[in-house]
Every structure is written in structure tokens, then in C-alpha cells.
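Cont'd.
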Amino acid sequence: MQASRRSLFDLRRSSMQHQPYQTRPARETRGTGVQGHCPCRKDFTLKNVLCLAPMAGITDWPMRVLCYRMGADYACSEMVSAIGFMCAKPHNDTYRRLLEVHPEEKNTAVQLFGSDPVVMGEAAHRLTELGRFTMMDINMGCPARKVVSGGDGSALLLDPDKAYKIMEIVKRNTWLPCTIKTRLGFDDEHMTAIDLCRAAESLNYAWVAIHGRTRAQQYSGTANYQAIGELKAQLKIPVIANGDVFAPEDAIRIQQETGADGIMIGRGCMGNPWLFRTARQALEGKPIEKETLLDRIETAMLQAQWMVDFKGERLGIVEMRKHVGHYISGLRGATTIRRQVNFMLTLDEMRDLLETMREAALQEEEA
Ligand SMILES: Cc1cc2nc3c(=O)[nH]c(=O)nc-3n(C[C@H](O)[C@H](O)[C@H](O)COP(=O)(O)O)c2cc1C
């Protein structure tokens, strides 16, 4: 453990030196329970809160900042492996990138996954010390085989006692408000979300986010809002409802059918950060301001620039390809454009294509 502690300390220092991004002074809280001030924004209330869901490979800071600009109240990092983080070598680029927070971010949680309570506690402590995040989320819902086979993510739905232990030790090792994100159950025979939510409630967690599917369903079928509503009715802890919000009307439906305190949006905002604005307008009964084609192209250009600044040209552009694919979805010729984009390696290539599309969109607007 000594070696990994040293490497982690170096990682922390090196990432702070390397990046001038948001830092808050670290405090020693280990083993003493939640204490100190809550770094959550003072104006943050749990009423119709709109959250950006954690999505591995998607919710890096460029994506999060775009969603905040469009009205998200909260965002979550991509999931971070507790053991991977603890053992990371100094200057490990993967973790440096995963843990980078932009000054414009309002209220960003770090999401931890793992199933060893001791390692989860240590990781929670170290991540808190970074001073970048305002909340700490535990992943209890990831359905990926490689995560579940290690007993992590949604596998914790099969072992509520272990899930409780993890929640307890994480809470004891951070002063940040803690949350869990889970699914309705592992499968139809193990609908154990209620056990995890009650554990979170008893440990004074800030909220539970529930995706309305089981692990066995992965992403098939539709999210079961009624089941989320039934959980909500049995709990005192705030519930954030998640699943299948792709349009402003879905936000109304999930809110009405679950009675949840907030809504978490994942896939729907890929290539569409405006969904936060339009969902809020729908929830407040205001006229809906849809984005224009020009908005889409210009936002794709901005995100591409940020991705390159953040990740370097090659990685930034390769990762940006999927985002461009989402921004252009539904446009005439999208399939051909997507094929072109999937071979791009430089910002200039991507910018040229988007610039051509931008000019065409401007002409269309003028016509
Ligand atoms: C590409 C992708 C990556 C995801 N990564 C994570 C993750 O790291 N942690 C997590 O808790 N959920 C993850 N999820 C699940 C989402 O947070 C969310 O629960 C799910 O997509 C359902 O919400 P939606 O219908 O609004 O997309 C991921 C989903 C997708 C599509």
C-alpha cells in the first residue's frame, strides 16, 4: 500500500502542477465522518434538479461545461476505478484526464466504482483531498461485463450488505455529500434497489439516482418509471429519476410518473446539450427554445477545439468523432458525413467540414 500511496500523492501533485484548474484546499477528515463545510453551491436546491448522468467516454469536462451552459445543475465525472486510481503511477494521463475539472463547472461529482470497501474508502479520501469535486457518487449500476465480473457496479445489487459497507466507509472518508447511482435490480429475481436506497437513506446520503432498468435489461426495452415512482414513495431520501429522457416531453413524463426530486439525463444530451434548456422550459411550462442547425454546428466546433486543447489533437479528434456523429444526427447526408468524420485525425479536417456545413446552414437561414 505504501508504494501506491506514494504514486498517488505524486499523481495528485503532478496533476495540480500541470493543470491550473479548480482546486480547493484539502482537509483532513479521514475516519471522522462528514465534517467541514459542504462545498455544494448555496443556490443548489433539490427541486426539479437537472443532472447530467455519468457516461464513460463522454462526460469529460468539455461535455460537462456545455451541459452546464445549457442549464444542467449537476454533472458527474466518468466513472473512476478505485483500485486503478489508488495504483496509478505518477503522471498517469488517463487519471489526470478523468479527474480534470474546469473552473466553469458548478457542481461536479466524482464517480467511484469498486467493491473492496477498504480501497473504496482510501480512494474516496484521496479524491476528496484533490479538492476539485463537490460531491462523491458511487457506481452501483454499471452493467458492463468486465465491471460486474469483478463484483463492481451493478453486481453490488446482488450483495446489499457489501453495498452498505462500501457506502458507510466512503461516507466516513469524505466530507463531500455522497450519492449512489443504481438500477432497479440486478434482474427480475433480484429487485434490490430498495435495499441499497434504504442503506443510503440510513447513512444520510444526499440522494439516490435510479435508472429504471435492471442490469439484465442493459439498455433494452424502456425505462420503468412506475417502478422508480414506487421506490420514491417508500423513501425519504431524495430520488433522482433516470432513463430515456430524449426530448422535453420525456422530462415532463418522467417527472410526473415518478414524482422524483430531479431528473438525470444521459444519452439524450449527446450532441444535444440544449436538452437541459428545453427540458427545464417544458417542466416550467414555458415556450420551448429549440436549437438551430447553426447552434449545432458551432457547438460541435467549440467542443472539438476544447477536446484538442484538453486531450491533444489525435486523441481529441478521435474522441470527438462520436460527438460530431450525434450533432449531425437527423441531418440530410448524415451517414456520408459520419463516414468522412470517422477517418479524420486533425482539427483542421474537422473544422473544414464543419465550416462548410456552417456556411450552408447560414445560407439556408438567409434564404
Ligand atoms: C456511453 C455510456 C457510458 C456510461 N457510463 C456510465 C458510467 O460511467 N457510470 C454510470 O453510473 N453510468 C453510466 N452509464 C449509464 C448512464 O449514466 C445512464 O444511467 C443510462 O444511459 C440511462 O440514462 P439515459 O437513458 O438518459 O441515457 C453510461 C451510459 C452510456 C450510454
